[in-house]
Amino acid sequence: MKYFVQKGSIVRNIWGKSDTVLFIFAGAAAEFALNKAVDWLYFTGKLPTDPLGRLFSTVSYARKIIFAENEPASKIIDSIFYIHKGVEENRGRPIPDWAYRDVLYMLIHYSIASYEVLERKLSTEEKEEVYDVFYRFGKRMKLTKLLPNYSEWLPQREIDMQNDLQKSEFTVDLFKQYKKHLGNVRYFIVIEGQKLIIPERVRKLLGFSKISLLTFILPFYKFSRLIHLDGAIKKILLPKKYESEIYELDIA
Questions:
Q1: Which of 106, 129, 162, 202 is the least buried, fewest Cβ under 10 Å from its Cβ?
Q2: Number of domains the chain is built from
Q3: pLDDT at residue 250 is higher than 70
């Protein structure tokens, strides 16, 4: 039985834990708000009315692909492709290819950054493995100009962030929506988590400091996992609307 991501892969470890996936979600939410193509999701109306749901669905799709067999994974990717083509037809203009790549690149960066914050540093080989999974994802999405490996991608990632990110009225509005849907306490925690994993370019555009209060709290949270108290902590902190979906992330 051939899977899109083989059993034992570091990618399955990364995406098989709710803690890591939630950090990926938080980082992508920050960077996505800065993307010059974010107006596309304002066109559908889904992003401003339910920003958490929209971003969570993106992460959930990625996770389904990672744990699926080859054929079902390909079908999921194809469905994502045709859904976006429908949006393009409704608006009368194509979504730029670079915008698709940017979302793919977010998943690569935040997969690595989140795991390294919560678990351990990844080896070069493991980072290449993460990149290869999303490279194949992108190729199936018919994306162009994808570089063949992680080491060649790194400098291109920096160039793309310089070209494709800006702080706009959409950025300001999205963060307002995040706060509205999360509430003050959860919003504060998300911001502090974002500080730990966002690239320098994102940090500067958002005006975030380099110091996160979670730096001092994470060791205690990691200890709570050892004594199985992390579930109770997450139950208190996480939005009840997505509680069941979040707990399902731990079932790999």
A1: 162
A2: 1
A3: no
